């Protein structure tokens, strides 16, 4: 493999450092960003592989945590002081190995490198030091496999990697804390695996806030801990409860739902715990309660703040003793139910007013998850709208292709007091009204079109608002022209140079609008 010399690498170092900084600035999960960073590092600098070990605070061993390698890595740990990586961690000093096969301390634990690789590759390992700690501590090590190169070039790459390690140290420290928290949750029966995998069906999570909500739901899902979902009406608490249940060991068992605000207080107990025949007027036959129906599965109690004090006492007993009694019966029935609760009310205020039991509050507040209102996560508005557009087009047999830029502006700037539920109803109405291929502003409800509603709930500066409108206008034109920037320039009555400049400024992928791209996508779908 041809390799870049030290003299020729100066620009490469700077370009790679700039790319690394941009990668870390992106609004993406921490582990994903660091993995992308390792890939950039290996590809830009022509390293064979790049990987990182991070110290587990509990075991004080080094765990192989992040890798970019052509060969699959084994799940291994390193002991401080042993091997090259262990020595780097123990001493806090970098080590370079010109040829792996010449160093007896090179352990070759993770990647099963062949004898040929060991003869043809060198190795660089640098410490990752957390300078923010009271006593500067080594929290991990960054390592790369390199082709055989002159000693002065190897030393230059070592210095470069030390700079990289310094840049990422704070992020690695944060990841270490997350790993420790997940380990703690695992010990508590709350396995946190798959926290950054794709969202469940029908659950749109483009914003950082909603990705955090999904991460928390996946952390609590494998346990039997009670989850308390909090947020305004219409934010998607029921959908999140379904996601938690479907990711739990009880996924093949029933998920039973009850809106505690939908029934009068005198009927709630009968609905939850069942009743015996003749227990009260109208009880013509014995009925099983929802706790019995949900046995071995999950019971979702929406608006739990609406429960009467008597019903709260019985729910508390069901949680603590795993026993219930039907109304009008003295016989106890054992039930095994995982409880998920939801409320839009401030339960703490209900506690102070004596309208909610303190002991029940602490029993259900084991793992609270707060879902922010839609107006606080505007990045989700357009993806949600497009998701609902696709669903309703399929349901009603419509051929609506997209939402116009002015309509998008109204959607994004509206304050959405009804949250996701209101947005869904809005798009359904628009699809039903639309007789063309594009949803226009006049297909949207009048509330969105009023000047008062459009100006509410957003705090963009003049420059940001202009840039946003400019970007969406450009995208709308490129969609119409199939990615033809020259035609878009004509349509927008500006020069090609300006369109080209704006495309680069806003990082717009013109290729995705081309007809050939769309045809290839359809072929893949078919």
- Note the main sheet: 6 strands, antiparallel
Mean pLDDT: 82
Roughly how much helix do the residues carry, as a percent range? 40-55%
Care to count the β-strands?
Answer: 17
Q: Whole-number radius of gyration?
A: 29 Å
Q: How many discrete domains?
A: 4
State the helix count.
21
Strand content: 5-15%
Summarize the structure.
The chain is α/β, with parallel strands linked by helices and 526 residues long.
Structure characterization notes:
This protein is α/β, with parallel strands linked by helices. It has four domains: 6-187, GAF domain (Beta-Lactamase, 2-Layer Sandwich); 208-276 and 288-370, P-loop containing nucleotide triphosphate hydrolases (Rossmann fold); 374-459, Orthogonal Bundle (Helicase, Ruva Protein, domain 3), CATH 1.10.8; 464-526, Arc Repressor Mutant, subunit A, CATH 1.10.10. Helix content is 47%, strand content 15%. It has helices at 6-25, 30-45, 83-91, 115-120, 151-187, 208-220, 237-246, 265-273, 290-293, 309-321, 347-352, 358-364, 381-396, 405-413, 419-433, 446-449, 451-454, 462-481, 485-492, 496-505, 515-525, and strands at 49-55, 62-68, 77-78, 95-97, 121-130, 137-147, 227-230, 255-259, 274-275, 287-288, 298-302, 323-325, 332-334, 338-343, 367-370, 402-403, 438-439. Strands 3-2-1-6-5-4 form a six-stranded antiparallel β-sheet. Strands 8-11-14-7-15 form a five-stranded parallel β-sheet. A two-stranded antiparallel ribbon has the order 9-10. The longest helix is centred in the first third of the chain and has 37 residues, at 151-187. The chain is flat. Residues 1-7, 184-198, 451-458 and 518-526 have low confidence and may be disordered.
